[in-house]
Amino acid sequence: MIYIDINQERVPALGLGTYSLTGQACRTSVADAILLGYRHIDTAKMYDNEQDVGYGISDASVDRDDLFVTTKIWHTDLTRSGITAGLEDSLQKLQMDYVNLTLIHWPSDDMNLEECLETLMELQQQGKTRLIGVSNFPASLLQEAKSIAPIVCNQVEYHPYLGQSAILNVVREHNLMLTAYSPIAKGEVLQDQNLVNLGKKYGKSPTQITLRWLVQQDNVAAIPKASSHEHRAENLDIFNFSLTDEEMDHIHSLSKNHRLINPHFAPVWDD
Ligand SMILES: NC(=O)c1ccc[n+]([C@@H]2O[C@H](COP(=O)([O-])OP(=O)(O)OC[C@H]3O[C@@H](n4cnc5c(N)ncnc54)[C@H](OP(=O)(O)O)[C@@H]3O)[C@@H](O)[C@H]2O)c1
User: Fold this and answer.
1) Catalytic annotation on 47?
2) CB of 213 within 8 A of CB of 243?
3) Which pairing describes strands 220-222 and 3-6: parallel, antiparallel, or unpaired?
4) Residue 21 CA: which ligand 1 atom is closest?
5) Facing residues of 134 across strands?
6) Which atom in ligand 1 lies closest to the alpha carbon of residue 231?
7) Would 229 be classed as within a structural domain?
8) Cα–Cα distance measured from residue 233 to residue 76, given in angstroms and rounded to the nearest whole number
9) CB 95 within 8 A of CB 64
10) Does residue 16 belong to any structural domain of this protein?
């Protein structure tokens, strides 16, 4: 495993995404992932699976302190009371006293950013979340958020077809973490001949090459979702090889501004 050291927390650079996993499938996936060696789990109130994630974690019987659990506050809850009640509800469903990281899931035109971040800071001081951060914040808004509060993360879509250079510049300037969601472009990388060819050199799949490319970058974590044991095991098996600088650059050059997630309430992207 590669770790990202951030504000006295050690974040495993590879985690399990859980969007669209619910019920028993979610519970089993989370428990199985932990048994495989995953120690970083990503959920959100909006995924409607926090209770199942919590059950999966307790089934796996690991020390809570060995896990890094992230949840998120939905964009319609971005008021002082909405954020406070939202995190309380997430903790209750997860059956936990604290999460490691709480994110604003999407920015909203209606939010008062200062008030939102102050509320998150209060929850952090109360020990309900170890770290605070944002998700889907364009570079300029990330910069503004960082000037208000000690946020540590921006979780955004990032894969070989969507470069994130502006956000990465802000992330590295302030030693934050970029958590890459849809890291294997929802499976699109599987057909990519560039990645297939690179994989042949290392005996790895295009998915593994892509995940390695992400976690080999400074301050970048990745949270692929996988509902099968085989995919979860494959995605974790990326720590026994490394890509050369030339290969890293080659994968960067595949970027073509191909964004997969862009709901009607998304911000104007500045990358
Ligand atoms: N902050 C946000 O707004 C936001 C937005 C989107 C996603 N996310 C987070 O990021 C996580 C991942 O993103 P995502 O689910 O959109 O996309 P993704 O992880 O890029 O792709 C998931 C898809 O790839 C397949 N897959 C996984 N491993 C594979 C492997 N080794 N070989 C072949 N196929 C494989 C999965 O199939 P199987 O399930 O069949 O294994 C699933 O269909 C989400 O679950 C969520 O936690 C956050």
Assistant:
1) yes
2) yes
3) unpaired
4) 45
5) 104, 154
6) 31
7) yes
8) 36
9) no
10) yes
Q: Has residue 127 been placed in a domain?
A: yes
Domain range for 108: 9-186+218-241
CATH number for position 234 = 3.20.20.100
Give me the chain's average pLDDT, please. Answer: 97
Q: What is the pLDDT of residues 229-267, one digit of tens each?
A: 999 999 999 999 999 999 999 999 999 999 999 999 999
Residues 6+ apart with CB under 8 A from 212: 204, 238, 241, 242, 243
Q: Which two tokens stand for residue 254?
A: 């595949």
DSSP 68: E
The residue type of 53 is V
Total domains present in the chain: 1
Six token digits for residue 31? 């428990």
DSSP 8-state assignment for residue 13: S
Name 220's bridge partners: 178
Does 64 score more than 80 pLDDT? yes
Rounded to whole angstroms, how far apart are CA atoms 120 and 145? Answer: 12
Does some domain include residue 193? Answer: no
pTM over 0.85: yes
Q: Which of 182, 204, 214, 269 to mutate to test the pocket of ligand 1 (most atoms within 8 A of CB)?
A: 182
The residue type of 192 is D
